[in-house]
Automatic annotation (TrEMBL):
<dbReference type="InterPro" id="IPR011892">
    <property type="entry name" value="Cyt_kin_arch"/>
</dbReference>
<dbReference type="GO" id="GO:0016776">
    <property type="term" value="F:phosphotransferase activity, phosphate group as acceptor"/>
</dbReference>
<dbReference type="InterPro" id="IPR027417">
    <property type="entry name" value="P-loop_NTPase"/>
</dbReference>
<keyword id="KW-0547">Nucleotide-binding</keyword>
<dbReference type="GO" id="GO:0016301">
    <property type="term" value="F:kinase activity"/>
</dbReference>
<dbReference type="Pfam" id="PF13189">
    <property type="entry name" value="Cytidylate_kin2"/>
</dbReference>
<keyword id="KW-0963">Cytoplasm</keyword>
<keyword id="KW-0418">Kinase</keyword>
<dbReference type="GO" id="GO:0006139">
    <property type="term" value="P:nucleobase-containing compound metabolic process"/>
</dbReference>
<dbReference type="GO" id="GO:0005524">
    <property type="term" value="F:ATP binding"/>
</dbReference>
<keyword id="KW-0067">ATP-binding</keyword>
<keyword id="KW-0808">Transferase</keyword>
<protein>
    <submittedName>
        <fullName>Uncharacterized protein</fullName>
    </submittedName>
</protein>
């Protein structure tokens, strides 16, 4: 099996997937694709919040199929970093990374990011840690239900990944350095 020059990143909500993917792409000179940003744009186009879109996706599989098609298209490229819940599933020849973070910590990071990220502000309406925590829990349940129902995939099962990192124990630069180092080792291995 020919390995691709693709890093796929998934993980818990608020674990830093986008920030990590941006830095890795910059460091390696790779392109970048975020299914989260793509989903936020769909939500805005439909006049919905991200959580409302997730709930609608439970009964309208076309939403997930549209996102998955974009991820698959990105997976046809080389030298790309993709942050997406299911990219590891759609691009099995990629280096698959899972970022872990408890929701109690993630809520603070998301709240901070809401103040800085215009796309997130427009698609996620929360002003308190409690509201963010509730959104995290609802969104995670929705995703777990949808991905299992549609594809029989558990996107939180660590055994699906080449590397699992706790982003609470490592800062952004450490996480990026660990991934780049392990990715280079993975690329060097002959299968």
């Amino acid at each position: 099996m020919q390995k691709k020059e693709i890093i796929t990143i998934t993980g818990t909500i608020g674990s830093g997937k986008s920030s990590v993917a941006d830095k890795i792409a910059e460091k390696l000179g790779y392109r970048r694709f975020s299914s989260g940003d793509f989903m936020r744009k769909i939500a805005l186009d439909m006049g919905l919040t991200l959580n409302e879109l997730s709930l609608q996706a439970q009964t309208s599989k076309g939403i997930d199929l549209k996102i998955d098609e974009e991820v698959k298209k990105a997976g046809e490229l080389d030298k790309i970093v993709i942050d997406s819940r299911l990219a590891f599933h759609w691009i099995p020849k990629s280096f698959k990374v899972y970022l872990d973070l408890p929701p109690e910590i993630a809520k603070e990071r998301i709240l901070k990011n809401l103040k800085e990220n215009k796309l997130r502000q427009e698609s996620e309406h929360a002003t308190t840690p409690e509201e963010v925590y509730g959104q995290i829990r609802r969104r995670r349940r929705s995703e777990e239900y949808r991905y299992m129902k549609l594809y029989g995939v558990n996107h939180t099962d660590h055994s699906n990944f080449d590397l699992v990192i706790d982003t609470n124990k490592n800062d952004l630069n450490q996480v990026v350095d660990i991934i780049v180092r392990e990715y280079k080792k993975w690329r060097e291995k002959i299968k």
